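ESCALATION

Customer reports they have been waiting on this structure for their group meeting. Please prioritize. Original submission:
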Amino acid sequence: MRMLPLKGLAISTSIFILAGCATPVDQLAEKPYCHTDRGRNAYCTKENAPSLKRDEEAKQFPSNPEALTVYVVRYWGDGHHPLDISVNGGTAMETVPNSMIRLRVKAGSHRIAFSAGGKSFDRTISGMAGEVRLVGITGTDWSWGSSSHAWADDSDDQVKRQARRSRLIKDISLL
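Update from on-call: job pushed to the front of the queue and completed.
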């Protein structure tokens, strides 16, 4: 008979703990995004990422009739540190692994660049208003300090697959 109160306490505690896990996620909240590698080494953006709702919408890869839309996708395994990306030599935008940036720019040609390991990597993206372009960044960081980064030579479908597993961390219009 004495086990009955303990059993009741255990059940009540379990229900209370599980209720906390069932709290709905705020789809409209904007907060920093943190990339973790197997549950360790959190690397967070300094600025708030767009909401999960906007992240979901971006992963449909809609075009904008007034702009060239460019997705810069940073792959998961390309290191464990922030990288700065710039467009046409402008202000740098921070990325972390497993993230993407959606840019809306004027039709024409644009130079997208990043630096890693003392090397600069540039890519020129061209397109008309209403078109969507995708580029990926891939690379590795080795425990002995060596790293290797480059623009991925993947097809649009391959970059889209990577983008769907990534988190939108910036949604910027440069019109």
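Sent to customer with the following note: The chain has one domain: 27-173.
Escalation resolved.
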